[in-house]
Design brief:
Layout (H helix, E strand, L loop, with lengths): L8 H6 L2 H7 L8 E7 L5 H10 L4 H19 L1 H12 L3 E6 L5 E6 L1 H8 L4 E6 L4 E2 L8 E2 L9 H5 L2 H6 L8 E6 L25 E2 L15 H10 L16 E6 L9 H12 L13 E4 L1 E2 L12 H11 L3 E5 L24 E6 L31 E4 L3 E5 L3 E5 L2 H18 L5 H10 L20 H7 L10 E3 L4 E5 L6 E6 L7 E7 L7 E5 L3 E5 H10 L7 E13 L2 E5 L5 E7 L9 E3 L16 E5 L8 E6 L6 E7 L3 E4 L1
Parallel strand pairs: 7-9, 7-10, 8-9, 10-12, 12-13, 13-14, 18-25
Antiparallel strand pairs: 1-3, 1-4, 2-3, 5-11, 6-16, 15-16, 17-19, 19-22, 20-21, 20-23, 23-24, 23-25, 26-27, 27-30, 28-29
Length: 654
């Protein structure tokens, strides 16, 4: 108590209760971890509303949100950082890190620095960077499950994910993420779709803030591999599918230090990284959905409703990402939703997920599933928690080491929702995460007490009903971005060099077709895409041109355009700035010297109608896209007796 004896009431208000309690037991030279929230914050809720009002395309929305947040941090953090760095030189500050996702600074400081910070008018709140934990599932280690089952898991059918697969929506081109214990990145059901194996540097696909730092996904337990498997796990060799969005890419933040400690500052860092992994707001490399199965157990009372998570999660959602949380495994009492998912910014933020038993008729709520109402007050839907429910009892998913296991918990329910968001984003790439969650929220299958309740929320998510609801969004105008008008693209046989064609999304649940042809002739090329871009190699383009009858060295000058379309209800729309002029040219490979390999000179080959032995004639390759002729003459090649064409560099005959 002596520490605060001389401090004013306003100073004490700036220091949270849990930090004040911690300071009572610190000696003057002891460090403690704190989060310093600045007064000057971006009004992220107003910015979000304005972006919806103008129907901002997703790329414009993301850039605007990220750049606005970065600019605010750059303009306002200087004086506090200067003070903290000066105290660091005096040994009173140990660690220091500034963030822009919300205008906050993390520091490890002595008690007197906390007191000095609390007197500053540019500081809104100072909180303890307290240890966090995950929502511990029912089993510490998943129960063993069949490794060779080639099936679609029951829970995936319960939410009707398989219905969307039959319509062609499997999460292709979309990205899921979680903040968890990590992932076994070598698991055969996941490895091929980690973004680090698909053209991104590892640091743009894997975030590890816990020393010793790793450069590829690893799981310090089993929890994260299990939850990622529920989102997108599938072994393509066996067909064994445990994931809702089996064709989605994935990225991950492994913030849990098993058996060490993790902190809110690590979560904030993970959300910031997710919004802009490559520190370039122009590139759209953020995930579509982030599933979270952790809690901050030591924040208590009304402080949960005003914590730093409020502004952080609002910023992530404003950028277009959907965040969902496990409701917690502290049921079945009232108001047992674990923080910070008991926050109720709006009807779908923060989106907490309860667990039902998908293996039992009627899909009863799990006894452990945490219940509402929210402790943050409000009325109507704002007061009710959880938002929705999903399967979370005896869910079969992945375990590190090419294994499978069963586990139960709301930790298993939340990734069902994240995977569902990825499926719907494939069908509706122009919608924000909040819009997708609102559709899932409004189309649930009602369970328990009629209407929304504090046990099931709105009910069990229903992907087919949600997909049908997408048709209510009209197609909106969109425009072509690249390549520029008048561009020339030169293809080349077997080339792996990529070429990308991009456009704004129609923001409506549409798919797209990229169309090319001379102005007065029928379309020569039509390439469909489920997202707002097409990336193909120059070799793939060369094949398309060859199929269109274009010879090597020849060009095809014409016009190209992009159309958005939807199958249910039927609708289509052309880009607002098309068609554009474009020239497609097939490159001519240069021939290079080559030599004969076999058979060696002087060999005699004796044929026989009764001998089925093979004879192989081969030579080195002389260039890409060329054909060959094998010639034999006697007594010289001027008198050709045999002439056998070949499109390869070898021939095998009996």
């Amino acid at each position: 108590m002596q520490f605060f004896a001389g401090s004013s009431f306003s100073q004490q208000l700036r220091i949270t209760d849990r930090l004040q309690a911690k300071l009572q037991f610190l000696n003057p030279l002891e460090y403690t971890r704190v989060l310093i929230l600045l007064n000057d914050q971006v009004d992220i809720e107003s910015l979000d509303k304005e972006l919806y009002r103008i129907n901002a395309p997703l790329n414009y929305r993301a850039q605007t949100v990220i750049n606005t947040l970065k600019q605010k941090a750059l303009q306002t953090q200087g004086p506090i950082l200067q003070y903290l760095n000066s105290e660091k030189d005096r040994g009173k500050v140990n660690e220091l890190m500034d963030f822009w996702v919300t205008n906050v600074i993390y520091a490890e400081v002595t008690p007197d620095v906390v007191l000095n910070l609390s007197t500053r008018t540019d500081v809104q709140m100072i909180d303890l960077d307290e240890k966090i934990t995950w929502d511990k599932p029912i089993y510490d280690e998943p129960l063993p499950a069949n490794n060779s089952t080639e099936s679609v898991e029951t829970g995936l059918k319960v939410i009707k994910a398989d219905e969307l697969w039959r319509l062609g929506f499997t999460g292709a081109g979309r990205t899921v993420m979680h903040i968890d214990t990590g992932v076994d990145g070598l698991h055969p059901a996941l490895a091929s779709r980690w973004w680090g194996n698909n053209g991104r540097p590892w640091q743009h696909a894997w975030f590890d803030p816990v020393s010793p730092f790793t450069t590829s996904p690893t799981d310090c337990g089993t929890h994260g591999t299990h939850t990622m498997g529920i989102m997108c796990g599938r072994n393509s060799a066996s067909g064994d599918t445990v994931g809702v969005a089996p064709d989605a890419y994935w990225m991950s933040a492994g913030i849990t230090d098993c058996p060490g400690a993790s902190y809110p500052s690590m979560n904030i860092a993970a959300y910031q990284w997710a919004m802009d992994p490559d520190s370039n707001s122009v590139t759209m490399d953020m995930p579509d959905a982030i599933s979270c199965s952790w809690q901050d157990p030591n924040v208590s009372g009304i402080a949960q409703c005003t914590s730093i998570y409020v502004s952080t999660l609002n910023a992530v959602e404003a950028a277009g990402i959907a965040v969902c949380f496990s409701a917690g495994n502290s049921g079945s009492g009232a108001s047992t939703i674990t923080p910070p998912k008991n926050i109720n910014t709006d009807s779908v933020n923060v989106f907490s997920v309860g667990a039902v038993d998908g293996n039992t008729v009627g899909y009863p709520i799990a006894s452990f599933s945490s219940r509402g109402p929210s402790i943050c007050g409000g009325s109507g839907t704002l007061l009710i928690k959880p938002e929705v429910s999903a399967p979370g009892v005896n869910v079969r998913s992945l375990v590190p080491g090419n294994s499978y296991g069963l586990n139960s918990g709301t930790s298993m329910a939340s990734p069902h929702v994240a995977g569902a968001i990825a499926l719907l984003k494939q069908a509706a790439p122009g919608l924000t995460g909040k819009q997708i969650k609102a559709i899932l929220f409004s189309t649930c299958t009602d369970l328990g007490t009629p209407g929304e309740d504090n046990t099931y929320g709105k009910g069990l998510i229903n992907l087919l009903a949600a997909f049908q609801q997408l048709g209510l969004y009209p197609l909106n105008a969109f425009s072509i971005q690249t390549p520029a008008p008048g561009a020339t693209i030169v293809s080349f046989p077997n080339s792996s060099t990529p070429v990308t064609i991009t456009w704004d999304t129609a923001a409506t649940g549409a798919q797209y077709k990229w169309i090319f042809g001379p102005a007065a002739n029928p379309r020569l090329l039509t390439v469909p895409s489920s997202t707002n871009s097409i990336t193909m190699t120059l070799g793939q383009l060369d094949v398309l041109l060859a199929n269109a009858g274009v010879a090597q060295g020849s060009s095809l000058a014409g016009q190209w355009d992009v159309w958005s379309y939807r199958v249910s209800p039927v609708d289509s729309l052309k880009s607002s700035n098309g068609p554009r002029a474009l020239t497609l040219t097939r490159g001519v490979p240069a021939l290079s010297g080559f030599g004969l390999n076999s058979p060696p000179s002087g060999v005699t080959v004796t044929t026989s109608a009764f001998n089925s032995s093979l004879i192989n004639i081969n030579w080195r390759k002389s260039g890409e896209g060329v054909t060959y002729k094998w010639k034999f003459g006697s007594p010289a090649l001027s008198n050709v007796r045999l002439s056998v064409p070949s499109t390869t560099r070898a021939m095998t005959h009996h």
